[in-house]
Model the fold of this input.
Amino acid sequence: TGTIYQFDFTEVRGDSGDCDAIQLSEVVLYGLDGAVISGITASQPADLSDYSLNENELPNNLVDGLVAGGPMWTDASLVANGRSVLRLQLPQRMHVAEYQLFTNRNAMKRDPVSWLFGIWRGALNATQEGEFEVLSSQTNFLAPVNRTTGYGRLGSMGMPPPSPPLGKQPP
Done:
């Protein structure tokens, strides 16, 4: 349970020589009840971000509720740093049970395929003074080919989300 959750993206679909950035159109977090968590803000530590490819494609575009046709987030820091850190601040302390990433609308090579997800315990913009509690990780994830498409709900504890309850079984 926390108020700041973090993605630490380490790899995108494109070949290492072709990689120029990471890009997503939306990130959605879900609570224990399966409902979308609203009121989230998104940011990156200043020394771990690079918006030089498009200064209008900032982190808060990821939590605006607009998947198709909305603005995207693009971060070129993955190339120089070997990682891209995204922090999502919740309106209050709560547990994130699941999350879902959505592909960008144009460049498959920028789709994240490897990342860590967890709770950041430190100042929102700090890079060193804090602790990252990893809840789940994905390596070489098979990102969707279709654009502005969800990766599917992923459990925050490294497990798939629970199945819906079954109806009453006949005797």
Remarks:
- The radius of gyration is 16 Å.
- Confidence is low (pLDDT under 50) at residues 159-171.
- Residues 77-81 form the longest helix (5 residues).
- The helical segments are 77-81.
